[in-house]
Structure formats: C-alpha cells, structure tokens
Amino acid sequence: QPGVIQIASHSVTNVGEVPRRIRFESQGFPADTEWECRDLSWNHETLEIERDLAPRESVGVDLLVRLPDPLPARSVPVSGTIYVVDVKSGERISALPVRFEQSGFPQDGGDCCAP
Q1: pLDDT tens string 80-101
Q2: Which end of the chain is more exposed for a tag (fewer CB within 10 A), N or C?
Q3: What is the 3-state secondary structure (H, E, C) of 13-79?
Q4: Sign of the CA dihedral running 18, 23, 29, 34
Q5: Is residue 49 over pLDDT 50?
Q6: Closest listed residue to residue 47, CA positions, set 69, 23, 70
Q7: Cβ count near 22 (within 10 Å)
C-alpha cells in the first residue's frame, strides 16, 4: 500500500539453552503501527507467542509502519526500535533499531538526524 512500509520476515531465534516465551514491543513508531505473525500461538492483543520457543527454534514477525502524510522535512521521517521481551522476567532480551531514511534528502546541520 502507498505510505506503508513492511518490515517483513524479521526472524527471532531462541539462541539460549532453555525454552523461552516471548512478546514483542516497539518504541518510537507511529501509534497505528501493526504487527503480524503466522505462528498459531500468536496473540495479536498481547503481541505474545503463547508457547515456549525451544532452543534454536525461530519465529517470524512482521511490522507494518504507516508513514506520515505529508512526510516531515527531515532525512529520517520515522524511526523506532523493535524489542523482544522475555514474558516471565519482563527483561528485554533483544533490540532492533529501525530508521526509514528519505533518499536524496539534503543532510545539513539543521536536520536532527544528519550524520
């Protein structure tokens, strides 16, 4: 869809030695960001995989981010972080920062996100 970017097939693997139950969180994305997962134990309300992931087992999750219209006049109009959280402890066990950059946008000192 126009104005929507899909972060697709972000695969999360349990690299530990014990089974873990996980949920997903995000920070910094627009409020209407949507999560998708094909795992049968996915709970869309809690963003949780409602079963333990065995060691070396993976699960895929997608994030649909709607871009603001019109796009803000800056090189990085949208950015945020995807977190994987251990349900039992509440510990954030992984973080994936995401930045959507406007190609060809002039980088200058007035831009908060310019390198």
Answers
A1: 999 999 999 999 999 999 887 7
A2: C
A3: ECCCCCCECEEEEEECCCCCCEEECCCCCEECCCCEECCCECCCCEEEEEEEEECCCCCCCCCCCEE
A4: positive
A5: yes
A6: 23
A7: 22
| Cα–Cα–Cα angle for 92, 96, 99, rounded to 5 degrees | 140
Q: 0.70 exceeded by the pTM? A: yes
4 and 63 Cβ atoms separated by less than 8 Å: no
Residue with tokens 């994936």: 96
DSSP class of residue 102 equals: -
* CA–CA distance, 6 with 4 (Å, rounded to integer): 7
What is the amino acid identity at position 70? P
